[in-house]
Amino acid sequence: MTRTASIRLLLLFTLLTPLPCSAVPAEEEPPPDPHLSDPKPTVVLVRVVAHAAMALGREVGGARITITDLDTKQILAAGIQQGEAGDQNQIMRTPHVMGEALYSSRPAAAFTATLELRRPTLVEVAAEGPLAYPASSRRVTKTVLLVPGQDLTGDGIVLHLYGYLVQIEHPKPGEPLIAKDDVKLRASIRTLSGAPVRPHGDWDSRKIRIYGELLIGERIVERLQMFYSSDTGTFETPFFVPRDKDAPDGITLRVVAVDAASGNSGMGSANYSVLTERLRSTARP
Description:
285 residues, mainly beta, Immunoglobulin-like, four-stranded antiparallel β-sheet, elongated, single chain
């Protein structure tokens, strides 16, 4: 083999032989991101709804919402849910599959906040309402981990309030009653979102136990079965006012609504003084 052929063979061998790993130039690592620790805007939507009903909107005063960092106890956001109760047909009558938007497919009341988060943050989301009816107000909380930059929108974080709005319409609360009078107790019953309870409706009163009670002090004197009146859209029943000497400090009327299936229940009550029959005869010639 000639010298020239030997040199060519050596060069070919060198080209075909892979270099050891240590000889392969390493790729340069990317520089660290200087913004990894910067706070990231994170949109959080909270929606407060009446259990088995609609969102708490302006008709019932909405709901007060607070988002608190559980680690630092700092309040990150607070405000009032505003808007409408939502589309009743969409929420109550349309079948849905798991994960499908229930409240956000049509406008419904909500509270939205943009938080500046530096780290995954465990928060307590608290809601209280309906604000226009403090006697029927409920409070609920939920614990959620918020991740920086990961928005929670759509239906958002949904909190359910259990209960009914029960209001005694007649006799007017505080109105004096006449001893031995035959009086009609009348009460309206609605969901916490403000929708009426009635027979054959989306919130069917036939499935709800509704009754009244007459109390003297803490003692229940009589329990009254209440019936729906289509003329007034309320539930009513007659009762006799006790004698004034039997109720020197007056009486209390209480109306209770209980739905064992949904877990919703509500109560309304009012106090009344009792006047003697003699005063009635002089007041009504």
